[in-house]
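Whiteboard transcription, Tuesday session. T.W. wrote the structure tokens on the left side:
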């Protein structure tokens, strides 16, 4: 059994050795044609090394054996007058070419090892970060819940509403909101992050639109909506749209318009949220969907943001095999969410407008 296993592992090398010996024999038997088997030996050696990339000692040993075997046969034929002495220069030439190929192959192999090592380190770091976010979020929820409970009791017992208690409760609610989004981001890389189901897209978007138009005083517009079914995670899609609409509300005034629309794009759907707000600075466009990225740090802090909403949109889009993007204008921005898995129905799109 060990012998059979060795033969299987070294089948390529053994086959080449047999081929090389046969060509060396041809060099000895037919001196006039020995340059043909000579080149066969060297070319086959190069091909085998390209498949195997032996260690340095094994490569050096094989190279010396091939140099000695081919060089000695040409040397003998040159002494006998069967070959010109100039043919001997073929040996160092082929050796130099092989050594150059070995050097490049080893450099490439080292580069691949380095890339694999860095990829493993990055994957490990990402896993640690996600585990850290999960652990921190879980651990912080307990004291936040306890603090909220005590403040609620204090507010009921005190009778009169104190602004300090209200502020503390608002801040605790904000912390809970941040913890929920951190947990969502921590789960983004897991296989069960999304569970697809059939979504009647027109009705779904109308429901999201009505819900937001009732709670945020803006000029709300519902644009063209394609009729059809989208295969996506319902709650994840709702979370992504909520984040886009919340972002639009955050950077607009009461008199500004916010429009929700969608269009079919082959087998995908592109959902867009357009606003007449302050837009996005050009320097922030490339990283606005990164975690904790903020287009304007001072302004975002004033509005209570921490740079998690758009990163959640990006995570949900990628989990569906889609993408998100942003286009900005002098007065406003258009955020888009592209998702595959849309099957359009043979029905015309329609437009509705509602003003608050």
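and on the right, the sequence the group agreed on:
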């Amino acid at each position: 059994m060990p012998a059979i296993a060795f033969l299987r592992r070294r089948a390529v090398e053994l086959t080449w050795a047999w081929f090389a010996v046969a060509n060396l024999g041809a060099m000895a038997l037919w001196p006039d044609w020995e340059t043909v088997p000579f080149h066969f030996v060297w070319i086959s050696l190069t091909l085998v090394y390209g498949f195997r990339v032996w260690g340095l000692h094994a490569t050096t040993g094989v190279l010396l054996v091939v140099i000695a075997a081919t060089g000695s046969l040409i040397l003998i034929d040159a002494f006998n007058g069967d070959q010109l002495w100039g043919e001997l220069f073929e040996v160092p030439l082929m050796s130099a070419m092989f050594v150059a190929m070995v050097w490049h192959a080893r450099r490439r192999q080292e580069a691949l090892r380095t890339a694999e090592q860095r990829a493993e380190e990055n994957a490990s770091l990402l896993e640690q970060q996600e585990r850290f976010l999960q652990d921190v979020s879980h651990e912080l929820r307990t004291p936040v819940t306890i603090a909220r409970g005590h403040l609620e009791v204090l507010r009921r017992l005190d009778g009169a509403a104190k602004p300090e208690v209200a502020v503390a409760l608002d801040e605790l609610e904000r912390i809970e909101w941040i913890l929920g989004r951190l947990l969502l981001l921590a789960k983004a890389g897991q296989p069960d992050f999304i569970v697809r189901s059939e979504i009647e897209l027109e009705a779904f978007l109308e429901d999201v639109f009505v819900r937001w138009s009732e709670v945020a005083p803006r000029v709300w517009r519902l644009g063209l909506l394609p009729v059809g079914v989208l295969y996506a995670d319902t709650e994840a899609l709702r979370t992504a749209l909520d984040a886009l609409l919340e972002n639009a509300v955050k950077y607009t005034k009461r008199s500004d318009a916010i429009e929700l629309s969608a269009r079919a794009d082959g087998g995908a759907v592109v959902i867009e949220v357009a606003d007449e707000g302050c837009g996005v600075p050009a320097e922030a466009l490339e990283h606005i969907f990164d975690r904790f990225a903020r287009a304007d740090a001072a302004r975002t802090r004033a509005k209570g943001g921490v740079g998690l909403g758009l990163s959640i949109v990006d995570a949900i889009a990628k989990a569906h095999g889609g993408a998100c993007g942003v286009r900005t204008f002098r007065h406003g921005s258009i955020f888009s969410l592209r998702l595959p898995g849309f099957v359009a129905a043979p029905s015309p799109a329609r437009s509705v407008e509602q003003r608050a």
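Someone added at the bottom: Residues 144 and 204 are 33 Å apart (CA to CA).
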